[in-house]
Structure formats: structure tokens, C-alpha cells
């Protein structure tokens, strides 16, 4: 059965870092992939490029995102165009409402966003996580029960393996992993599309910008946190994280 998956992130490149293999896998299987990107990344690095204004950088990163979406198979991209680094200062109800409208218009079967600590502790990531969770709960009041989407957090447990920095506190237990071995090349090419962010890509996935995708793992990691209108009790998996399909 054809399903819709909605990914909700803060910046161009978030989708490729966390879910690139998953997106490519489920697109190949015939599912519809939607992506909301809250900012255009005007606060990010510019890499090898020189821009005169933040608006130029934002336009460039939007184009990089479109290239990555084409590689991965995103069928519908929604750009909210909030200022990069400022999501925490925006009215959280407004941000949640804009996400809710996309949910009610497109009726995804599941929604994927950052966990409460944002994976990296980035305040934009944390803000989009809170807003997405609020949006899903609010959408339940407007939609028939059979259209309520499940909500997942994405995790990147190996993000800091090649970094001098360390992960923030408050990590959410991971409850499932999706096998993406056959989609690592697409994930790598999507990361390469974010060329202005070469520093960040090299930091987490050294070699990928040069075409070596071996550092990309065989799994991407998720936590089911809401289903059928109820919060899911999240527990550690002492016997290991099971391989599952999200759809």
C-alpha cells in the first residue's frame, strides 16, 4: 500500500544527514515523500563560496536542498523561510500551525522530526521538534481518527564518532533501525549536494565529499513516540535495537 512520509527539519542538509537513506529507500518502494524545511540556512557556513548577503547564501542553500531532494526522491518540498538560528525566538504556536496545515492538507501516514535534544543540541532543531510534536497533536483534533499520523524521532547515534565535540545530554532511546545499505550512495550524493556545508559533512562523514561513502553506516535510527493519538512509552532496548520498517 502506498503511504506518505513527512519529514520536518530546521535546515537544508538535515534531511540528508539523518534520513537520506530512508527517504531514498521508501521512495524506491513507491511511497510519497514530503519535506518541510523551516529555514533556508542563511546562518550556515558558505564553504568555498563567497556571498555578499545572507539572502544570497539562503538562495544558494535552497538550491542545494532541491538538488538533494531530487537525488533522494522527495516529491514535495515546503520551505517555510524562517531566519536561520532564530526559530527559538518565533511564536511556537505559529510555527506549529504552519506544520499542522501541511499535515492536514497532505495527510501523511507518519511524520519524522528531531528528538527533543535536537540530536546536536542546536536550538533550531529543538524548536522544530517541539513545534512538530505540537502540530501532530493539534492535527488530531481536525482529522478523522484513521488519518492520524504516527510520529517518529530520528537519531544519529554515530554523528560524533569522527568529531572532537560530544553529543548533548538528554538523548532519547532508539527503538528501531532501518536498513539502508543499498541506499548509501544516494545518501552520499545528497550530502555532496550540500557543497556549501562541506565542513559539516566532513566533520560527521569524512571522505563523503570526495566520493568515499564507506563511512556511511548501514542503518538509520528512529524512535516511535506517538501513535493512534497517544504518546508511546519509550524504553531502552537492552537486547539491541531491532531492524524494522517504518511503513
> How would a textbook summarize the main sheet?
8 strands, mixed
Outline, from the CA principal axes? globular
Fraction of residues in helices?
25-40%
DSSP helical segment count: 6
Q: Terminal Cα separation, in Å? A: 9 Å
The H/E string reads EHEHEHEHEEHHEE
Estimated radius of gyration: 17 Å
Q: How confident is the prediction overall: mean pLDDT? A: 95
Structural class, by secondary structure, is: alpha/beta
Q: Spans with pLDDT under 50 lasting ≥5 residues?
A: none
Q: Approximately what portion of the residues adopt beta-strand conformation?
A: 15-25%
Query: Could you give the count of β-strands?
Result: 8
If you had to describe this structure to a student in words, what would you say it looks like?
There is one protein chain. This protein is α/β, with parallel strands linked by helices and 247 residues long. It has six helices and eight strands; from the N terminus they run E-H-E-H-E-H-E-H-E-E-H-H-E-E. Strands 1, 2, 3, 4, 5, 6, 7 and 8 form an eight-stranded mixed sheet that branches. The longest helix is centred in the N-terminal third of the chain and has 19 residues. The radius of gyration is 17 Å and the shape is globular. The termini are close together. The model has no long low-confidence stretch (mean pLDDT 95).
List keywords for this structure.
single chain, 247 residues, alpha/beta, eight-stranded mixed beta sheet, 6 helices, 8 strands, globular
Amino acid at each position: 500500500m502506498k503511504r506518505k512520509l513527512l519529514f520536518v527539519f530546521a535546515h537544508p542538509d538535515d534531511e540528508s544527514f539523518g534520513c537520506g537513506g530512508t527517504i531514498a529507500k521508501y521512495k524506491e518502494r513507491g511511497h510519497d515523500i514530503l519535506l518541510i524545511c523551516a529555514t533556508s540556512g542563511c546562518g550556515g557556513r558558505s564553504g568555498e563560496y563567497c556571498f555578499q548577503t545572507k539572502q544570497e547564501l539562503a538562495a544558494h542553500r535552497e538550491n542545494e536542498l532541491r538538488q538533494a531532494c531530487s537525488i533522494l526522491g522527495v516529491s514535495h518540498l515546503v520551505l517555510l523561510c524562517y531566519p536561520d538560528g532564530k526559530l527559538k525566538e518565533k511564536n511556537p504556536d505559529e510555527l506549529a500551525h504552519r506544520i499542522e496545515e501541511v499535515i492536514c492538507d497532505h495527510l501523511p501516514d507518519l511524520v519524522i522530526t528531531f528528538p527533543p535534544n535536537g540530536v546536536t543540541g542546536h536550538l533550531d532543531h529543538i524548536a522544530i521538534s517541539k513545534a512538530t510534536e505540537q502540530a501532530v497533536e493539534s492535527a488530531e483534533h481536525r482529522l478523522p481518527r484513521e488519518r492520524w499520523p504516527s510520529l517518529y524521532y530520528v537519531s544519529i547515534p554515530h554523528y560524533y564518532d569522527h568529531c572532537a565535540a560530544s553529543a548533548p545530554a538528554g538523548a532519547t532511546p532508539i527503538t528501531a533501525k532501518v536498513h539502508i545499505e543499498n541506499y548509501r550512495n544516494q545518501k552520499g550524493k545528497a550530502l555532496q549536494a550540500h557543497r556549501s556545508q562541506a565542513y559539516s559533512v566532513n566533520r560527521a562523514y569524512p571522505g563523503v565529499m570526495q566520493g568515499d561513502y564507506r563511512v556511511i553506516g548501514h542503518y538509520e535510527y528512529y524512535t516511535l513516540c506517538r501513535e493512534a493519538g497517544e504518546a508511546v512509552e519509550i524504553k531502552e532496548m537492552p537486547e539491541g535495537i531491532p531492524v524494522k520498517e517504518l511503513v
